[in-house]
Write a structure and sequence with these properties.
mainly alpha; elongated
């Protein structure tokens, strides 16, 4: 997960696991800690990644909605909606 406290609320899967186990011992660490090499995964244990809060879920839903709207002819293009694209 990206932020432990953020992910362990709102009845997410990790939050339910915390409630069932009575603690956070099942957590190895955050995505940031893994990418920085501060933690390593135990190949003998299952690895589950929770993207809750990363924004990737929002992008996936937006992608789905956009393609569904295109298929129905319900898309209205707004030229230059994002005026500045140089930083990207």
């Amino acid at each position: 997960m990206d932020d432990v406290d953020h992910c362990l609320k709102a009845q997410t899967s990790p939050h339910l696991a915390e409630q069932l186990t009575g603690g956070r011992d099942f957590l190895t660490g955050t995505l940031g800690a893994l990418l920085e090499g501060r933690i390593t995964l135990d190949p003998a244990r299952p690895t589950v990644f929770s993207p809750f809060g990363l924004g990737i879920l929002d992008l996936a839903v937006g992608h789905h909605v956009l393609h569904a709207a295109k298929a129905r002819g319900g898309v209205v293009e707004i030229p230059d909606f994002i005026g500045e694209t140089e930083r990207w």
